[in-house]
Amino acid sequence: MKNLEHIGIAVKDFAAANTLFTKLLNAEPYKIEEVASEGVNTSFFRMGEAKIELLEGLTPDSAITKFLEKKGEGIHHLAFEVEDIYAEMERLRAEGFTLLNEQPKRGADNKLVCFVHPKTANGVLVELCQEIK
To answer: What does UniProt give as the signal peptide span (predicted)?
Structure first.
């Protein structure tokens, strides 16, 4: 793993959260994107090398909608940049971690992504991210 890529924050009111974080960080989001396959809206704020991602569920069955119903607003996941997502997935499996994806999938912000089950990471949902070239 190279570095912390972003922190994902689940929000109920996407517009209000974007306004709040724009004021808080004194910066506009550099990207707002719908990820239809995941049923979410996302926005990204750059903070030095790391980013803040706001996530809003768009469908009742999206992971973000379910997270908000169960836990409320707040930190949803930590994402780490990797150079080779396939090799990192294999390494983590060999170390005993459970992955939520058999193969990486296309995520927001031009990334291939895979998630590590929180039950095997002290309750933290971990995302692996690799830039699509």
So the answer is: none
